[in-house]
Structures are given as C-alpha cells and as structure tokens.
C-alpha cells in the first residue's frame, strides 16, 4: 500500500531540488556568460525621433550562444539577435568550453533526474531497501562536482579567438580583458552552491520521513501523513 508522506523538510528538499535544476539549465542555455566591451552604434543606427545616435550596446557571449545587434536594422529591441554561434559541438569556440559544456550538461542531467524523482518521494521512499533520499543526495553531490569542474575550466577559454573578439586583445585565460561576467555565470555558481546544500539536506528529508511519529501514523492505518 502506498503511503503519501509529506513533511516540511522533505517538501523543502523537493522544491529546492527542482529550483536548482531549472536554474542550472537556464544558465547553461543563456548567452549572458560574458558581457562584451561596448560597441558604438554605426552611422546608420540613428534614432528617428531624436535624430541622434543611440547608446553603445554590449554584445553577450555564452558557452555556445551569443547575442549581438544587427547593424543594418533600425535600433530597437528587435535588432538584438540571440542564438547559437556553433552549429555543432566541434564549433564551440574553445576546447575548454567544450569540456565545460560536457561537465555542465552531465551535472544538469543528473540534477534534472533527481528533480523528477524527488516529486515521487512522497509515495515511494525506498527502492530495494535503499533510501531514495540518500541516493538522490549522493547524485546531487556528484552533480555538484561536475558543475565545479565545468566552472573552473570555463575561464580558461577566455583566451580563444571568439572571446578576444568580444573582450579585446587583452583577454586571455582567466583574464576578462574588457568584458565583465554576466548573470548566467553567477547563476551557475549560485546553483552549484545550492546543489551541495540539497545533497546535505536530503539526509534531513530522509530522517523526517522515517521518524517514529511517521511510523506511528502508518501503524494507525493512515494513508496520507502530513507532518511539520
């Protein structure tokens, strides 16, 4: 018989696991890892209402994508074109970024799998006498290590030709040049920290769902158990 067990700690772990997986996925897909040096508007890019040139814009560069402004179009939000600059894996600008993409992708897939499984932990708490919470926590810890490796290797690729075209000639490995870090990089770091928090908190979720009070309510014949 399936017993639905919901505790404050298990629900918080589930929600946090889902948030972490989505945060890392969105960061990975974003082009806002590097914010390039300001580029002046061309002579054709003139505001029709004021007759003056628009403010310089900052192109952005991600692991495999980029956002830039199309110079022949009238300045508006619609002239910013975002999309992948690499049509396949081999066209990613740097070997270090290729390694980053692999490590991050593996880590994110593990986090997404854990997020999916965490939803069902309300009904199933163990498989083959192994606690799902402990297994998921272990997977989150491993995923966090993959994410760390990816984030460490990413700055090593700042010396590639693609990054130099955005960040200027002074850009090199672990030196930004004229670029600055975008929100996606910080989101990936924050998600990595939360990944390890989730891994530790999974043990608390397991303790909460296997407590004596839960067992007492199961023995009383209750199928829905909600505890703070």
TrEMBL record:
Subcellular location: Membrane
Membrane topology: Multi-pass membrane protein
InterPro entries associated with the record: LHFPL
Keyword Transmembrane: yes
Alphabetized UniProt keyword annotations: Fertilization, Membrane, Transmembrane, Transmembrane helix
Top-rank taxon: Eukaryota
Any Gene Ontology CC annotation: membrane
Chain ranges passing through the membrane: 12-35, 96-120, 132-154, 183-203
One GO BP: single fertilization
Protein name, per record: LHPL2 protein
Source species of the chain: Circaetus pectoralis (black-chested snake-eagle)
